[in-house]
Write a structure and sequence with these properties.
Elements: E1 6-9, H1 13-23, E2 30-34, E3 49-52, H2 56-62, E4 65-68, H3 73-81, E5 98-101, H4 107-118, E6 123-130, E7 133-137, H5 140-149, E8 155-160, H6 164-192, H7 197-201, H8 206-209, H9 215-224, H10 229-240
Parallel strand pairs: 1-2, 1-4, 2-3, 4-5, 5-6, 7-8
Antiparallel strand pairs: 6-7
Amino acid sequence: MTLEPVGVVGDTALAARIATCLVHRLPVSRLIIHGLNTVDLTDMPKHARLDRAPNLFDLASECDLVILACETHAAARAALTGTVDRPGLLEALKPGSVLADFSPATPEQSTRLAGQLSAGAIGYVEAYLFGPIIYLGGYADHTDQVTAAFDGVLDAERVGPQGTARVLAVLVDAHRDARKQLDSEFATIALAYGLEGDAVARHSLHADLGGGEPIGPVLDLASAHALPAPILTLMKTLKSGV
C-alpha cells in the first residue's frame, strides 16, 4: 500500500520519532512535516521525500493522513483551530481524511474532538505509543489506515472505539505509579526492620504480588510499621485482583 503523502505535526520528541520511522519505510514515499526542527532532512532513504510545510493549512490540504503529536491537548487544539491570520488543520482537512492524534488527552476530550471532526466527515484516531507498539482507538476503517502507515516499522493494534486508547494510557500510567509507590514502601519496611541495603535493592514488592501468598505477611509487616492507610488499601486491592 502506498500512502502519498503523510503529514506529521508537532514539535516534540515523539513527533520526531514518528517522522523518523515513517521515512524509513517503503509505503510512505513522501512525508510532509510542520513544527519539527529536530529532524535531519539529509538523513533519509533515497526512496523517500521529506518536505517542510510552510503552514498547517498547506500540510492538511495535501494529506489524507495527518499525524498530530503535540506536547498537550491544548496545543493540539490550537494546531487544529489556528488563529485569525493563521488557519489551522481544520480549515483544510479533506472529507474522508484521517487525523491520528498522539497528543495527551483525557478520554472525554478525545470523544469530543472526534465528534467535532466527524461533522466534517474527517476520521479521528487516538493513538498511544507504549514501547514498540501503537495502541489505537477509533473506527476500524480509520485505524486500518494508521496501521498501514506504520507497517514494517512499528506494530499498531486497535484496542476499541474512540476513547479506549486514552483509557489504556491512563491505566498504564496509574499502574506504573502504583508499582513505584509500592517499591518505595517495600524499601521503607525492609530498612525499618534492619535489612541491608543491597538485599533490598535486589528485590521488589511487586515481585511477590503475582504468587498471591507472600502478600499476607507483607501486609502484616506494613500494618505493624504503620504505613499510611492509602498504601495499605492499594496493597489489599492488588491482593484481591480488583
